[in-house]
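Fresh eyes needed here. Have a critical look at this protein's tokenised backbone.
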Amino acid sequence: MSQNPPNLRPDLAPKPRLTDTARPGQPTVGMVSLGCPKALVDSERILTRLRAEGYAISPDYSGADAVIVNTCGFLDSAKAESLDAIGEALTENGRVIVTGCLGANPEYITGAHPKVLAVTGPHQYEQVLDAVHAAVPPAPDPFVDLLPASGVSLTPRHFSYLKISEGCNHACKFCIIPDMRGKLTSRPHAAVLREAEKLVTAGVRELLVISQDTSAYGTDWDREIRRGLTEQPITTLARDLGQLGAWVRLHYVYPYPHVAEMIPLMAEGLVLPYLDVPFQHAHPDTLRRMARPAAAERTLDRIAEWRGICPEITLRSTFIVGYPGETEEEFQTLLDWMEEAQLDRVGCFQYENVEGARSNALPDHVPAEVKQDRWDRFMQTAQAISEAKLAAKVGKRMDVIVDLVEEDAATCRTKADAPEIDGNLFIDEGHEALSPGDIVTVEVDEAGEYDLWGRLV
């Protein structure tokens, strides 16, 4: 058992879990998946296609005939991490195919690692498969391979990410995601629902809905497709997902006014009372320089409206400190806003330049030591809020989902906790009969800064 320090990189997905055993002579492919949950879903899709073609999935370098590295290009530090992962794969295996967001700039990769076999961009599934075929020709056994593909999951089997769209229509100055992944393209409602039904039938107890801009789902459809809808497409989708019997958790919800439509679904219990909203900052001048909506007061009004409809709602967000031009006054406004907003779960980035981002050209970049100081102060504020909110839960009963059962404790999550990025609830007595995926009722008897402890009821 380990306590859960706050994961301050909410762009990171859980570490992929690979388990497979190759038959004699079966071609094998390894996968290193970096970056966000959206990239993890891309990795799952690639591996599902390869598995259906007769490839085995290797959990290590030595057992793989080739390795796919799915890269992240969100921040310069993430780019460096991706280049390091490519270099490690080349050293340990030697036959490496690169895909993902960083692959949108192939010269950047081949300049550092000229020996990679191929480079493809984000969600270029066919090109990745072509590169694998060229490097490791398929050798299917017609008696056991070439069957309809059952999905390869890189997460524990009791929860799964459900990607509902690609791309983004925003033009935030600090972000290059639209350049790498394109404009918003929403998946058909029926396709998303069909995938969700298959996942729940296969034993998934929690669906984590993800996209670059979840609340914009369906706004790219033409009038003919949207004809007959009486509410926003994301509200209809959330309502239908809520009928499947699994927990439904919404991530990356941009704070449009129509988000209020979904809050009654949370109050009714169809969707988890959890909203992940990337506010980024609170001072109007900082938000304008970011090219984000600059109405922090209205945001506080919306938060109050959401809590009025569903008092149990958990609000998570991420923020950037040290953005170019951020003054001490602007930063103090953010701290004051945090005190008033009382968000439940918070992550924070120190601003980094990203090649190609318009924010690089802004004047008055903040010195590194000032960014670090503001990050420290921000997290102290967020930690104090978290500690007080968790202390108020002592004595309450709540449902939790079990993630891991070890000898000394079971690691669980409440409805207020997403995997990897939020807190945990630990059960350290009477947990021996529990299994991952169980949903049980506990009474909270202890609280920390980010985690809870409880006993089975």
User: Anything to note?
Assistant: The chain has three domains: 28-135, 159-391, 397-456.
